[in-house]
Amino acid sequence: MRLVVDLNKCQGYAQCAFLAPDVFTMHGEESLVYNPRVAEDQRQGLARAVAACPVQAITADGLDGAAEPTAESAREASHGS
């Protein structure tokens, strides 16, 4: 999973830092620092942070799971053919 924050959009509301403190950190009142590579076990906090951003400055590739098929979806695809 890869994370991107548009720092031109970011207004420093810090909702992301509250919801995913292992990923986002505020330095000072307006400077956001983040890790662009997010571990799988941080998916839930990251999803909350993305949803909570009031200016929609955060995007995360693979967060919705569409790019990463589950075992169940793979079984359904093989049975549907």
From the structure above, extract its key features.
Alpha-Beta Plaits, alpha+beta, 3 helices, two-stranded antiparallel ribbon, 20% strand, two-stranded antiparallel sheet, disordered C terminus, 81 residues
Query: Can you count the helices?
Result: 3
Biggest sheet: strand arrangement: 1-4
How many domains comprise the coordinates? 1
CATH class: Alpha Beta
CATH domain fold name: Alpha-Beta Plaits
Cofactor: [3Fe-4S] cluster
Function: Ferredoxins are iron-sulfur proteins that transfer electrons in a wide variety of metabolic reactions.
Pfam families: Fer4_13
Protein name: Ferredoxin
Any overview of this molecule?
- The chain has a single domain, classed as 2-Layer Sandwich (Alpha-Beta Plaits).
- 31% of the residues lie in helices and 20% in strands.
- The protein contains 3 helices and 4 strands, in the order E-H-E-E-H-E-H.
- It has helices at residues 15-19, 43-52, 71-80; strands spanning 2-5, 24-27, 31-34, 58-61.
- Keywords: 3Fe-4S, Electron transport, Iron, Iron-sulfur, Metal-binding, Transport.
- It holds the Pfam family Fer4_13.
- This is Ferredoxin.
- Ferredoxins are iron-sulfur proteins that transfer electrons in a wide variety of metabolic reactions.
